[in-house]
Design brief:
CATH architecture: Orthogonal Bundle
CATH class: Mainly Alpha
Number of helices: 6
Order of helices and strands: HHHHHH
Number of strands: 0
CATH superfamily: lambda repressor-like DNA-binding domains
CATH topology: 434 Repressor (Amino-terminal Domain)
Length: 101
């Protein structure tokens, strides 16, 4: 059983995705191509989430990276789309430029 009280925000969202889809650790690992030992370490708070892991969750479950990282915006994409790391960086830079203007 997960103890949600010790979780940081991105880690909380990460764990909520797994429980929302009712996946055990082995199933969740298979879905996002993560080793079970790494998942255990992440959920125990012993290691940080990597951007690649967040990206894998986003792509597999059509969940917004903004929601996974900061809990902001819509959880699910309105359309099925995959984001590549090279696509995400210019999108974020563009959003920062829009703030300055």
């Amino acid at each position: 059983m997960l103890d949600y009280f010790h979780l940081t925000t991105p880690l909380l969202w990460f764990c909520l995705v797994r429980t929302y889809y009712k996946l055990n650790q082995k199933e969740f690992c298979a879905e996002i191509e993560l080793s079970p030992s790494r998942l255990s370490d992440i959920e125990a708070g012993n290691t940080n989430l990597s951007f690649n892991t967040l990206l894998a969750i986003s792509n597999r479950f059509s969940i917004s990276l903004d929601w996974l990282v900061a809990g902001k915006g819509d959880i699910f994409f309105k359309q099925q789309k995959k984001i590549l790391m090279l696509d995400y960086i210019p999108m974020k830079l563009n959003s920062f430029n829009n703030i300055e203007n």
